[in-house]
Predict the structure of Prenylcysteine oxidase 1.
Amino acid sequence: MALRHLSVKALLFFGLCQVGRRGFASAPEVREAPKKIAIIGGGIGGTAAAFFLRQEFGPAVKIEVFEAGTVGGRLATENIGGYEYETGGSVIHPLNLHMKHFLDRLGQYPLPSQDFLMMFFSKMQNRILSGLSPRADVSSKLAIFDGKELTFEESDWFIVNVIRMLWRYGLNFIRMHIWVEAILDKFMRIYQYQQYGYSFSSVEKLLHAMGGDGFLTLVNQTLEEAMLAEGFSQVFLNDVVTPVTRVNYGQSVRINGFVGAIALAGADSGLWAVDGGNKMVCSGLLYHSKAELVPARVTAISMKMRPSKTGSAANFYEVNYVGESGAAHSTYDIVVVATPLHQGMSDINFSGFSPPIPTHFSGRYHQTVATLVHGLLNVSYLGTTEKPENFFVSAVLTLDKKASEIHSLSSLNPVKIPKGYSRSPASQRKVWKIFSSQPLSQKNLQQIFLSWDSVFEKRWLAYPSYSPPHRRTPPFILHDRLYYLNAVEWAASAMEMSAISARNLCGSTRKKEEFSFAVWPDGGGK
């Protein structure tokens, strides 16, 4: 059965790589081609949208990407001791076909460095580096920590790990992999839909197309409810599933069932990352889309009207922004909002729309603090008597207990693995990344480390706070040719989900359909 599944997925990937313009051309082109497109946000969603839109409309359309910060958004790195380390999204699943496709396409061409990109968009020159490729794999070991001691430590022997899991949890562990695999099999349907040009006007319709009523049920119940209904034990959820949801989403098993399944898939084998940092995908997509980077913060979007060639009035959009030279504005035929429209994430004002579009949708984004420490780990903090020179655990996940002040502790490898590199024991100074909901105090650092050379802290509003039921997600279509890419995050936040949303919205730009605009009686979704 596993071989059959793999062959189907391989065919899907092959079809995705081959479709190119052919798949986009399968739908009738009945709309007037746009002359200018604005994309607000230079993360993986915004740059993927630029890539797909360039494929869709060809070289004639002008695409501008507004990004006030650094290209990559929540994909970011930090330089420590001369090496770069991931501070944002760090792993990609082997079945993330859009991300694979990006790497395949970008690996065929020379790509610029991050510094070159900034100079390129300023019409200056720099050197070209080689195309993208997967990062070299480094062995790893996992442990689970309850705040006082390690409750599980992975063995170097696979059979020993299997026996331990069977002894403690019966068939729960094997059944979990089967359950997640069944969800992934349904998830893979989205690539077939997108290959043939289908797009969906709402997150609910997209989920239903993939997994029917089952996926809609998953997104409106907790992971705990879903797995208990499938016969998993509460002990297994507490001991195994919760540590995974805490490291991936900083939350418990009370997140929605769909994002919970995505989290569990993120604990699968075969995970990979991009050599040089995952943010390089964003840089590469932006470069090859030949989009113009506008380093500015968008403050407002307003709807205007103008006569069309047919004599009827047509919509266009005025985008107001603030850049290095001050306030300015420009007009566009299509606008894609690829940044969260939520409190603390953006303050874009929408004017001239009926019904009105809210500045902020309901719900909030969850804070996760990433702390990178270059130092010497205090292994006794983990309650182990193992000597530091023999302690090779690289990822420590935590249980949902008051004693666990952190969500995870992991030793990081550089984003570009040096030749001959291998993971060092805890007796040597290296870079550790700690996820927590609140910034670490000096006392926390002194408990976890014997000494340190540097501490870097990044506070992320990384993903939504998932508390189902979330019965009304924001729409993909805010208005005719005004799209909201990040609506997909309320089903699940991941690099591949953003890429799927980008491809979905690209399909919407091509189709002539009667749009059903959302009505927000209270000024926001519910």
In short: Confidence is low (pLDDT under 50) at residues 1-8, 10-30, 111-129, 512-526.
